[in-house]
C-alpha cells in the first residue's frame, strides 16, 4: 500500500508535485504550531533589514492560514497547475511553466509593494493566476464551481467574488494575481498575435540551462517526443531527396557567359 502511494506520488507532474508538496508541508507545520507562521510571511521590514530574510519572497506563496483553506488551496493549485503542465499548448516545456510562475510571483510582489498593501501571504494570487490562464483556453466551455455551472472564463471572477464576501484581504491578493496573469497573457499572446508587435516576454536562456527539457514527455493527450538537433541542408551544404550523393555537394562556382 505504501509503495503504491509513493509510486503514485512520484508519477505526479513535477512542477505540480513540487508546489503542492511545499504548500502542504510548510502550511501544515505552521498550522500544527511546529513552526511559527511569522517566520515565513511576506513583509518589507524583514527584507530591508540586514541580513535580509530573502526566503520570505518564496515562502509567502506556500502559506495557508486555515486547515480548510489549505485543503481547498491544495486542490485548486494541483488541478490547474496540472492543466498547464500536461495539456496546455502554451507551455510545451517544463521550463516555460517555471518561467510563468516566476513572472506571476514577481509581478504580484511588485504590485503589492508599489500600492503599499503589505499583504502577508500570496498563495491565492498564484492560484487565481493559474485559473485565469487555463480558462482563457476554454472559452465557450462550461465548468462547475460548487453547485453552479458557469462559463469557464468566468471562474476566476467568481472565485474573487466569493473571497470578497468571506475574506476581503484574500480578494485583494487574488486581484493582484488576476492582473499579473492578464499582463503575462498580453505580453506573450495578445500583443504579438493581435497587436502585430514583438513578443516581449520570452523564457530566458539562463533558466533553460537550469531546467532541462527531456526528449520524451508525458502529455494529457499522450507522449510527446522532442526531436534532436539533426543537421540540415542549410548547415551541411547538402539536402535530402532522390538525387545521387555526388549531386548533393556544393562545388566551386563558375560564372556563366
UniProtKB/TrEMBL annotation:
Membrane topology, record value: Multi-pass membrane protein
Please report a single Pfam family linked to this protein. DER1
UniProt-annotated location(s):
Endoplasmic reticulum membrane
Claim: Membrane is one of the keywords in the record: yes
GO process annotations (BP): response to stress
Q: Which UniProt keywords apply?
A: Endoplasmic reticulum, Membrane, Transmembrane, Transmembrane helix
Job description of the protein: May be involved in the degradation of misfolded endoplasmic reticulum (ER) luminal proteins.
The protein's name: Derlin
Q: Which organism encodes this protein?
A: Fusarium albosuccineum
